[in-house]
Design brief:
- The protein has one domain.
- The chain has a 21-stranded mixed sheet that branches.
- The longest helix has 4 residues.
- Helix content is 2%, strand content 60%.
- It is mainly β.
């Protein structure tokens, strides 16, 4: 069910591990700027953070590993954000995998974002993990336009997913025109994903598309599904909702929760 769009590209790979860049008591701060092809991985006992790109991509990535061990739960706070733009075609992705857990949430919480276009676009996103959970709150960082693309006569694809054990939530947009997706927040707890739902702030999750294309939302749930635009389900199951269109599409609230 975990649908990842694989980038088959030749890239410069940067691998950073805790033994290479920090000591057990020192915080790690990384600022990376690049143009063109990239492969980046920060591998740590608390989280793995990755980014890759190909084509006409320029970007800025920040990562902060606080090494703070709050409440002595053995899990540090790690934050990372990416700001990538595409000119003349290219693709970029950003992943964040929580590899350790405290007393609240499981260690297999993750988020993955992808944008590819033959024209122009941008992918801007921020994620954080600590002893309690993994969440992506872009409030105060990038409230709108996390995923944008103009196919410029070609095509584009925008994809985002969150996993939490057996729980799963995603959207996919593909088309030949333009796409503008606001997806300000995600939140995961012990047995829940709030996908696009307000994470201690207001909800800002919507999509506007021109031209022909497809927009799809998908989920796996164990006890319940609650869709802001309408609809719910109880018990365990899977949900896929797909729209195909020839001249544009929009939805004012794309958020939903699964438990």
């Amino acid at each position: 069910m975990n649908k990842r769009i694989v980038l088959a590209i030749t890239m410069l790979v940067l691998v950073l591990t805790s033994s290479l860049v920090m000591t057990a008591s020192a915080a790690t701060d990384i600022t990376l700027t690049w143009a063109g092809n990239l492969g980046f991985l920060y591998a740590n006992d608390d989280a793995d953070v990755g980014a890759s790109s190909a084509g006409g991509v320029t970007g800025l990535l920040h990562l902060n590993d606080l090494e703070d061990n709050p409440y002595s739960y053995g899990v540090d706070t790690i934050r990372s954000d990416i700001y990538a733009t595409i000119l003349g075609g290219g693709e970029v992705d950003f992943s964040f995998d929580r590899t350790d857990s405290g007393p609240y949430g499981p260690a297999d919480q993750s988020t993955y974002s992808y944008l590819g276009t033959d024209g122009t676009g941008q992918l801007i996103f921020r994620t954080r993990t600590n002893y309690a959970d993994l969440d992506s709150s872009n409030y105060g960082f990038q409230a709108n336009d996390q995923f944008q693309a103009d196919a410029m006569g070609g095509s584009y694809a925008a994809y985002h997913e969150v996993t939490n054990g057996d729980l799963f939530a995603s959207f996919l947009a593909q088309g030949d025109g333009t796409v503008d997706i606001d997806h300000m927040t995600d939140d995961t707890w012990d047995q829940e994903i709030k996908f696009g739902w307000g994470c201690g702030c207001y909800t800002n999750a919507d999509v506007t598309i021109t031209g022909a294309g497809l927009y799809e939302r998908e989920a796996n749930f164990l006890t319940s599904l609650n869709v802001a635009s309408g609809g719910s389900a109880s018990g365990a199951g899977s949900w896929v909702e797909t729209w195909t269109f020839g001249s544009g599409f929009s939805m004012g609230d794309t958020s939903f929760t699964v438990k």
